[in-house]
Every structure is written in C-alpha cells, then in structure tokens.
Amino acid sequence: MPSAMEGPEGAEEGEILRYEEAEDDSASPTDLSELLKEGTKESHDQAENTQFVKDFLKGRIKKELFKLATVALHFTYSALEEEMDRNKDNPVFAPLYFPLELHRREALARDLRYFYGEDWKEKIQCSEATQHYVDRIHHVGQHEPELLVAHAYTRYMGDLSGGQVLKKVAQRALKLPSTEEGIQFYMFENISNAQQFKQLYRARMNALDLDKNTKERIVEEANRAFRFNMQVFDELDKIGKSLTEEAQEGGFPVHDGKGDIRKCPYYADKLGKAGPGCPYHTAVALAKQPLVQLILVSCMAVVAGAAAWYLL
C-alpha cells in the first residue's frame, strides 16, 4: 500500500504500507511468495490509491467510518477463519494454519464491543460489498481450498506490514485510548517479531506442493481478493461522503438532508430493531404531521414575541 502522507495526525514521513520490507536473496522467481509479490503489484498499487486509503493515511478518518470498516473486517475474518479451521488438516493449506498467532476474530469482537457496546452483534450488519467478499471466501474454502492461500496471504501479510502504520494513524487521528481499545485488530500479541514471522510464513508457502497451474490460480485469486478489498473501500468512501460531520454522541451523524431515506446509512434497519433511525429523517417525518406543524407554528410565535419584547 501507499507511502505515508504528511500531516501531524497522519502517517509519519518514511512510513510505508508494503507487504515485503526486504528482498530475500534466497527466493526463486518460481516460488509462490515471489509470484504473489510480482503478480499482485498492479492490484496493490490500485488499492493504495483508493480514496478511502489515501484519506485514512492522512488521518482523515471519521470515527463512524472507522467503526463501519471494523464491522467489514469482522465479517471478512469470520468467514476466512471459519474456512481456515475447516481446512486446517488439508495439505494444500495446513502448513499456513497459525490460529494462535494470526486469527483476528476475538480481537475484532473486542473492538466492536468497545465501539458499539455489549450488544454490538445486534447493531451491526454485513454490507453489500463485504457480503460479496465473504461469499467468495466461503466458496473457496469449501470447493477450491488451495486458493485459500491467496486470501490468507492478502489479509494477514498486509496486517503485519502496512496494518501497523494504519494502527498508529487511527490511534492518533481518532484520539483512541493509549491502552489500545478500538485497535485490538492490529495487535498480534503472540508474534514477537513480525518480520521473522513473515519470513517463516513465506517459507511455508514456498514449501507447499503445488504445480505451476495451481500457483497461477493462487496469484489470480489474490488479485481477486484485492478487488474485493477495493470494492469495500469504495463502499466506505461513498458512505463517508454522506457524513457531513463527525458522529454525535450516541453514534448518530448530522445528516445533509439529501438522498433517499432508504439509502441513509443510519436508517433504523441498519441499527437493529431497537435503533431509533436517522435523526434527520425522523425530524422531517415528524414535521410533516399536522399537529406537529401547529405546535411548531405556535412555538415560533411565542419565541418571536419574546424576542420582540427583549429588543424594546
């Protein structure tokens, strides 16, 4: 992903989001790790230039949007790790099964509990773009498990590399606690040296017994994984444009008053059965009621009269 942007709240100068920090002199061009690195460069460049990622790196990330990104990660990793558990004994994936070191579901649950409260499961919903990603992961895990390598590589190697830059950006920009609530996703407590672990992971990938055709399919699937991620980024960017201000206390943004109520990201259905819905649309709906309009007119008359008296 991209080189860091300037700015006191963004990434520091010199920080970069890359999967490979150093060249491996012992690597062969036919190794799966090398094929993935070379074969996904274009997709990587495209992903790093999405508006969502560029804004994130500059520290221009609204808390409500960061919460929605965390929701997307929760559904993605729940699917990925379910399929990894399913294939933990399958020789085409077993050497890359590191649940203690890598799995993110519990960390994401802690983050969502911090942002949404104890009833967080009732307040979140899988978005359309994320659902497409999830469906593909399940298909791969159940029908083409050799391609699961591509999805694990794309996510976890990124989390251990550029994800660590994003962690610092988010903590600064959103003024999250120094005790690391809200960014547990980026914390890999059981990996003492990320660089050494990534070298081990690449070595395990290269040792998989795969023919040339299967390696090419894995590279193709990794590019597909990048596209799914970019679709999620674009979806988040569109939602971000509808947030005219930072979310207010209680998790509701100030709505700009434009667009279809059914497309409002804070519509009641998005927040669960108990959700009060978008405050803007609720106010508009109430204002259209005849009794409410009468009350509003009366109140305005009283206020106008009081103001006139005060100015005398």
Quick rundown:
The chain has 13 helices and no strands. It has 312 residues and is mostly helical. Helix 1 (32-39) crosses helix 11 (212-242), helix 4 (63-86) runs antiparallel to helix 6 (105-116) and helix 8 (148-160) crosses helix 11 (212-242).
Q: Could you tell me the number of beta strands? A: 0
Given helix and strand content, the structural type is mainly alpha
Number of helices: 13
Average per-residue pLDDT, rounded, comes to 80
Spatial separation of the terminal alpha carbons: 65 Å
Judging from the principal axes of the Cα atoms, what is the shape?
Answer: globular
pLDDT < 50 runs, ≥5 residues: 1-9, 13-22, 246-288, 294-312
Largest sheet: none
Task: Furnish the topology, listing elements before pairings.
Blueprint: H1 32-39, H2 41-48, H3 51-57, H4 63-86, H5 99-102, H6 105-116, H7 128-143, H8 148-160, H9 162-173, H10 194-207, H11 212-242, H12 279-287, H13 290-311
Report on this model:
This protein is 58% helix and 0% strand. It is built from 13 helices and no strands.
Q: What key attributes describe this structure?
A:
disordered N terminus, globular, mainly alpha, 13 helices, 312 residues, 58% helix, single chain
